[in-house]
Every structure is written in C-alpha cells, then in structure tokens.
C-alpha cells in the first residue's frame, strides 16, 4: 500500500500518486473533454483503396448539408502549399491526398461542421472517384528493381528509402570465416500498434483578432510540435500556444504530427473558430503511428563452447507509404545498433534498408527507444537458437557471454558506451527466485510423459535517455531536457518540465526528486507539464527519456536552488557560508548541533530578509544535456504449458527482474513493468496488423487487433537489482519501456523451448494457438 | 426527442436526437465527462456506466433507451465528500496510470463488489474482462478490488454489529 505524500525524504518510497484524485473521480481532463464556445467538429474522408488514382472529388452534396462550414481537399491545401508536410524522419507525407492515394484509410478530404454527427454524415456524401492501381504490399517485392515506383514525388526512382550500416564489415566477415559454429535465423517482428486507450485528437483554436493559435493536442512532445508547426505553417512560434492536457496513454503513438492535426489547424485558421478532431479507434490503428514491421536475419559466429565472436544482421524495414518514423535525425533505424545486447561480441556488422509499401506510414517507437525492441528481440531469440544448436542450457550460454561487471564502462562494437550493469547478478536472482533448477527437472519429467512445458529467458540490455546533444536531435533540435523550479515564500514550490507524461506518474516522481533535493515533501510540490507558454523547452516523453533527461534537469535545478538557499541560510544563521552544511533536511552550522534552518524558512527569507545585495526570489531553470545515454537491463523468465489438443499456450509464471538504476518510486516502477509486460504479452501472442494482397488492412479495430484483457493476462511477478547510472545526477536510468523491450522474446523462447523436442527452433510472432496446433499436428501429437 | 433520465440520483430532462449515444448524452449534454470513449466496436469498456444497477457500455446504448431509467456514473461514487472504498483502493494500490480506463473500470468493479465482497482473483479478472486497460497490466487493479472488498465487508460487519447492539438494547 502506498504511503503519504507528506512524507519527507521521499526518494525511493512508494508515495501515493498526486494525479490520482482527479482520475478516480472521473475528473481527468483529456482532449475530448474540452469544449470551447463556438467549437466545430471535423471528420476525415478516407481512402478505401491502398493504391489508386484520384479521378475527381465532388463536394457539392456534402457542402449542402445544413451545418457544414467547410470542406478541404488536397487541391485546396496544394494552393496553400500545405498538401505535403515534413515527417520527423526527414521525409514528406501527404496531408490530404493529391493525385493518388498510397494506403487504405489515407486522408483524402475533411469536413468541418456544427456537430460530430453532421460532420460524419456529410463526410459520407463527399464523392471521390478512384481508379484502382495494383498495390505493393510485400516489402521484398518493393525492393526489386522492376517493382513499380510508389513515390513518384521523389527524385529517386525506386522504393528504397535508406540504407544504414554500422560496424566493421571486413572484420566481421573474417570472424565468420574462421568461426567454429555459425547460426543463422530469420526473425520477423510483425507490424503492431501502440493503441493507447485514448485515441489521438486535437482542438485548434485560432483567434483572428489576436493572431494567436491555441492548439490543444494529445501530444507527448508539445514543444517539439510547436516548433514543427511554426516551421511548417509560417506562424510565428510565440503566437502558437500548445496545450497537451491529460493524456490517456501514449506509448509512442502521440509523438508524430498527423494529417488530421494539420487539417484542424488549417480549418481553424480559415474559420476563426475552434475545430475539434478526435479520431476513432479504427482511424487510430489504420492510419496513425504503427510500430516495428522489421524483417531481420541474424547470424552469430561462436566457438564450440558457445562463446560468441561476431554478429551479423540484415534487416528490411517496411515503413509504409511515407517514412513517418519518429527517430532522432541521425538514426534512420533508431538505436537498433544496441543489437549486440548484453553479450561481449568482439565484432558486429548491421545493415538496415527502409522501403516504401502501400501501407499506413510509420513506424513509431512503441514504448521503445527507437527500434530497441526489435534489436532486443532479435539477439535474445538468436542466442537461444545458438544454445539449442550447441545443446547448452539457455541460462548457461548467457552467463558464458555476459559483459562482466568489471568491463563497464563498456564500449560496444557498434559504437555505444554502456554506463553500468551487473548482468550476472540480475540473472542469478531471477533463476533463484523462479526456482530454475526445479523447473528444468519438472520439464524433463513432463517431456518423458509427452507433455510440453517451456522455460524462456530474456536477459536484455536497453539504451534510453536520448539524448546527449552531440549525437541526438530531431529535425535539428537537440534532445536535451529542462526543468524550472519556483519556491514560493511559504516553502511550497512549482516545478515545470519540458517533458509530458501520459500515465507514468511524473506529477509524483518529479515532486519526489525535487522534494528530496530541497528537504520538502512531495505534497509541497506541484508539477506541471504540457503547456508551452509556461513550461521550459524540452523534447517530450517517449523512449524512457523523461527520468534520464528531465529527471537529471529537475535534480540539478533543485541543487541550483540549494546553492542560493545556502547563502541565505548562512545569513539567517549568522555564520559564513563555509560553516553551513546541508544534511538532506535542513542547513546546519557545522559543529553546532541544533543550530539549523529548514528550506521553508529560507524560502521566506528569499522574499523578506535577504543578505545585502542579493537578488530576491528563489527560482531556477536548468537545461540538462546528459553526457551519455543510460543502459537499464533485466532478466525475465517465462514458464509456459502447452495444451496438446488445442495448441493454446498458458503462461504459468512470468518473473521480471529489472535493473533501472536508482528507483524513485518503487510502486510506480512496478506498475510500469506490469503494463509493459502486458503489452509484450499481447505482441507475442495476439497482435498483428496484416494486409491482404490488395493492401486492405485486416486488423483495423479492436475486434481484429486484439489487446489483452484481464482474463488472459498472466499474473506478473517482479523483483529488482540496483546498479545506479554513474553519470546521472541521481543514478536513475529510466524504466518505462524495459518490459515491452524485454518480454516478447521471453514468451517466444519459452514456447520454442517447450516444442524443441519436436525439432522446433523458431516461431514468428504472434504465436496464435493455431500455429502451435499445426506444429503439434504435423508431429503427430494431436489429430 | 424529449427524455427524462435519473443520473446519480438527479433527474434530468433533455432534448436529444434519436441517434445520440448514451455516452455522448452524459458527456456532452450533462457535462459528466467521466465515461470515456476508447473504441468503436464495444470492446474497451472505457464508457461503462450502470443502467438500473447493471453495467452497460454506454457507447452501445442510445440515450433514448435510458428514458425513464436510472443511470449511475463514476461521478456518483463519491458520497458527501467521501470516496467510495473502490476509489480509495485504486489510489492506494496504484490501480491506474493514465486514468482513461479508470471510470469504466471503477463502475465494473463497483457492480461486482455490490454483489459479493470476497472475490477471488479469477472472479475479478472475469468480472472486468469487458474493460481494457492499456497501462496497468491488471495486477494492481485486481489487488485494489480485493482490498475494496475487504473494506466493504468490514464496514458491513460493523454496521451489522451495531444494529445487533441496538437490537439487543430493546
Ligand atoms: S467506447 Fe469502447 S466499449 Fe464503449
Ligand atoms: S490506466 Fe491507462 S488505460 Fe488503464
């Protein structure tokens, strides 16, 4: 049970969340809860075809519907030079289609009307005549030289978006040539979607008199969105006010700027009235920010004892019709080069090619530091393939290859410097806690009886906290983050940050960080995010970057306040500053016990009784540019039982041991892990967004794209080790995405392990019961 | 169409279009924004409210169907400034993160707990399986509902004891 917010020295304690009182009363204020006077509603006309010429668009009938105010088509936007917009990945994307449509559900026109219902009705009367073109669905086909070119707007006349490679090719090849053992595995990470419970949406409110645009939007990165908007629209940045209200989950879905947003803004600029657009679930899955869709091949060169030498990876990345990936500019495949994982590879070489197809554009970093999930899945899966080939226990193989504690800071062959870690300790704890030896014994007995039970291990390493400005930017904007603290005369404070939480509990954890540094309680501190007119500039919340970046900013900002406070304390205590020391709760006079002053007294003095010549007030701002990324890690173990008759997989146990460095609020960390594991579970067993050969999206809603309910979700077990980050101001590493990054391979490894007596070495996700059933049937286990 | 609906004990008379969904009636006509919309296929349960004491997905009920009926929403849980045990325990046990599923989840939990307080994990998981949460992974929601059940049972016991004391005094 959580403890009270009034607790002092709150760091590391399970403080009750400050945001909850409004949510449990139904008083959260999400985007669709906001209504403004005179507000209109927008509905989007979407393409039924994946690839088609637009012959004509007739809006007459729709325009005649009473209550319709405006209809915008691609041609209208083209006149304003807004038919296309830049993507975060440096590509361009159609806002509304001109000439042709490139994916099913693509935005073709918008209707703005008095009410949600009228807008919807009128949208159905917009008559669009299409001439269907053959759809290019298979990314391998799209890469062939004779494939039709989808993006005629580009100079480059093929479907190839980028080639990215990293590592030493020649060295790696040499090692493969002389290797005693080589394993090779094709691994697909299917197309999935973050699908937060609240879909995306916005209200654009342009005031023609003041010239100010207020844009309410479910945004994980309001400042970045404001800048992008200023660049695209030509509106002066200080006249754009972005407000990101309560967000009903993001998971990366609310990082990009979507065509609907631009249309709502254009409509408001034209009409001078607030325009609201809230997407449906179907629109959410079928058109905004999908994730993954990587076709990967990994090869490991090792010696007979399973000691790994080199890793080679080739990947084809399906980005859909536009490269709307949300990656830092220099990283077209994100931080995929964390793919050597927790293991001491001597050399590695990685290639990724991006390709266009007639599918929805993306892909976003779904609870992931930009393609880290794909990397972790690939290496953890392939390590198991190696273990199986050499008949070495999966845990044992990992122990043989872990980067050792003494090797940190560890330079990886693909260019990262891991900050800290103790992989052995974490895996040992996990094995002990789950009773690994007994489980293996039980498994052997069951195998003898023809029962299929599996144990899957994942010992992943993450890379989070993008990032240090020397390497990381988005559209040129450096990826630091910020905090501003104002301590009021009565010793209460307001903290504003450049990040934007979506359920992670920042209002509590950031209050804890600042309270700890200032000797206050979390109750004394109000945390505000998401308002660009008040918060300092920052790049937002995704990729587990809030604690590594803004967490550092908050701590250092508080220390800046403490420096000034110390001077004031010396004045109050009537001693020199050198004689004052901070003990975590108060300023004391060295060697004089009892002579002390607390922060609230200092705060009052900052406004009432200052030392001669000192600037009044007690405020600070800090922009924190982290020196390195942080590298959380974990050891996850999954135990499954397989139903011989149906192929259904039952996850009997799942233990996640995480190491995210210093823990700010254990309750919140645990909650993050539970949530991410549930997402990983859905990905491993239930989720895929397939397309048929005509490019029809076959899972555009929650009837076909399944999200786990309480019924099938396993009971999660958690534990932790703590290896603080040596360079982070409070030693924290970030945790939000670890469970999503670390878990899919634990599930898959468990199922493959269960079926390994049948010669199974790999099954692609999602592991539907029918896939297992087919294997069982082929092997005569069931009829 | 003119409808009269009692929501959280208060009677409202309103003019609605026949096609208006109950969830939008509550949210946009009555300004009760607790019930949320998360899907278009009756899967998520973010819109769950009680209709005559039974949980319904208010995105799949027309406002006119609620004519003359009793509706209870998350806004009706708190009584005289005191949180309902189920609200309190969601807070204590960290049963929510983004909060978007929470009102619907609370209504389903409330309806389960009204019938029975000592629920097994299995019963709870089944009972809330019409409510999707994308954030919490359900473990803490289960804990919260169990803890609320215990508090409600204790309270019931206490009231019973008191009435017995009063009874024996006669
Ligand atoms: S909104 Fe999803 S079930 Fe009602
Ligand atoms: S708390 Fe976010 S969906 Fe449940």
UniProtKB/TrEMBL annotation, chain A:
Molecular function GO labels: carbon-monoxide oxygenase activity
Listed EC numbers: 1.2.5.3
Record-linked SMART domains: Ald_Xan_dh_C
Enzyme class: oxidoreductase
Domain Aldehyde oxidase/xanthine dehydrogenase a/b hammerhead, chain residue ranges per copy: 25-134
Superkingdom in the source lineage: Bacteria
Pfam families, alphabetized: Ald_Xan_dh_C, MoCoBD_1, MoCoBD_2
Keyword Oxidoreductase attached: yes
Record-linked SUPFAM superfamilies: CO dehydrogenase molybdoprotein N-domain-like, Molybdenum cofactor-binding domain
Keyword Oxidoreductase in record: yes
Key words, A-Z: Molybdenum, Oxidoreductase
Name of this chain's protein: Aerobic carbon-monoxide dehydrogenase large subunit
Automatic annotation (TrEMBL), chain B:
UniProt superkingdom: Bacteria
PROSITE patterns the record matches: 2FE2S_FER_2
A Pfam cross-reference name: Fer2_2
Claim: Iron is one of the keywords in the record: yes
Coiled coil (UniProt feature): none
Keywords of this entry: 2Fe-2S, Iron, Iron-sulfur, Metal-binding, Oxidoreductase
Protein's name according to its UniProt entry: (2Fe-2S)-binding protein
Domain 2Fe-2S ferredoxin-type per the UniProt entry, residue ranges: 1-77
